[in-house]
Amino acid sequence: MTRIVFLxxxxxxxxxxxxxxxxxxxxxPVIESNPNKSVVLAGILKFKTNKPVSTKLxxxxxxxxxxxxxxxxxxxxxxxxxxxxxxDRSYAINLMVQSAxxxxxxxxxxxxxxxxxxxxxxxxPRFKVxxxxxxxxxxxxxxxxxxxxxxxxxxxxxxxxxxxxIDNMGEVIWYYRTDSRISDFNFLSNGHIxxxxxxxxxxxxxxxxxxxxxWYAADRPYxxxxxxxxxxxxxxxxxxxxxxxxxxLILGSEYKAIENYYTSExxxxxxxxxxxxxxxxxxxxxxxxxxxxxWHAFDYLDPMRIGYETFSGYWNRRGFQDIIxxxxxxxxxxxxxxxxxxxNSRYLSSILKIHRDNKDIKWIFGEHTGYAxxxxxxxxxxxxxxxxxxxxxxxxxTKGTLLVFNNDNYRARPFNEISETTLSxxxxxxxxxxxxxxEVLWTSVIPGETGIASFAMGDVDWLEKTNNVxxxxxxxxxxxxFGYDRNWSMIREYTYTTPARVVWEFHITASEENDGPQVxxxxxxxxxxxxxxx
Length: 534
Known about the structure:
The chain has about 525 residues and is mainly β. The chain has one helix at about 155-160, and strands spanning about 5-10, 25-35, 40-50, 55-60, 65-70, 80-85, 90-100, 105, 110-115, 125-130, 140-150, 160-165, 170-180, 180-185, 195, 200-205, 210-215, 230, 240, 250-260, 275-285, 290-295, 325, 330-335, 340-345, 350-355, 360-365, 380, 390-395, 400-405, 425-430, 435-445, 455, 460-465, 470-475, 490-495, 500-510, 520-530. The strands form 8 sheets. Strands 1, 4, 5, 7, 8 and 9 form a 6-stranded antiparallel beta sheet that branches. Strands 10, 33, 34, 35, 36 and 37 form a 6-stranded antiparallel beta sheet that branches. Strand 25 (about 340-345) and strand 26 (about 350-355) form a beta hairpin.
């Protein structure tokens, strides 16, 4: 175990009280360590004044300085979070408070020393920035969720969750540790983070790691957690989307016994049998855990149209024995421009847009083979470029276009021959809802570059200030070209040009000094934050 040392020092208080009407401290400012040990790169500042104040902190170490500001909605007597410090640093803190008419500077010494990062290579990955054109980057910090991976050790892989925030040089300024693997996460408008877990929970935390809200699938194959609101669902998986009214869209699932079902995805003539098949359910629930809208894939799509990895054992590893995976959605989002829900089905290599009012499918975007006649009028034609395969993370840009991370796995549906070539990349599509056509506007493919193949996960986001595109290559195999002998991951920031140009590249890898278990590290996604430090 890593020993955490958090040194807190405060000395003296020097200020003069002129009269009861002047702004003054009525308790000495003190710094406390964060009592929640899931976030150790944090402190709490407490003090009292005789008037409501806004607060400004200037933190300075030998090679890092920044400012934190809190308006008068924060009560300093209850504690102000100190967030944004780098590990293994000593910071001096200047404190200034301001009321409606007065400003007061604290004259005492406030010091804080942060702990080093965990040194055990199975507790924390290695980060490396290989390209950084600072003048071209989208400003802010990057939030990501490293996921450790050892083949054949399921518990080791899933009973560990990590969220990390880094600056553009790859230095950590915040991290959070929990006991279940994290998939999707969202940085919320209130400054909190909501994340999904392997054991079918949705959790909202503040930046000190305190649980603010949590929900869980009530029918999950585990005992009820110690806290949280039950939602009448079998699972929560992959992704949740915060709605404007405080509700959540979330991916769930259900299974059905289907007769004469496939037993192979490579041999069309293999014997058939009755199989328990898992399909996706889309839920919308309110903060009280009440489901207010739902959509069932079994009601609208043909479960006999399968994709590769149907028999990969995904649900077996999550507590559902002898249940095979059919639709395998991995992203859900809301389009407020037409009150629709967009859902991404990885195994079906399809993206669906669904009317939220009547639940009808508006369109289906993906390669066309195998669809029932009733759905063929809803299929979008691609007028240029290539189809995506086993894709992840469609997201809407401010222009109304659709970004997709194309994993490009297999390039075929059962029972067709699998392609030996994989080229994972991000692509932007302009979709015409009237004539159901789509056009490729941009891709991250760089001519002449050796292909990068992400066998799972992946993410793509539009960056509004620079019009750059942030692309996460979620799970990469060992690479001789990049010099890694275990699973690793990469994030790139591309220019929105043709061809695209890499202005930032960041690697998530195992420690080179690790002589123990052969740990690899992947990520589910990444998000650029412009307001992490207030």
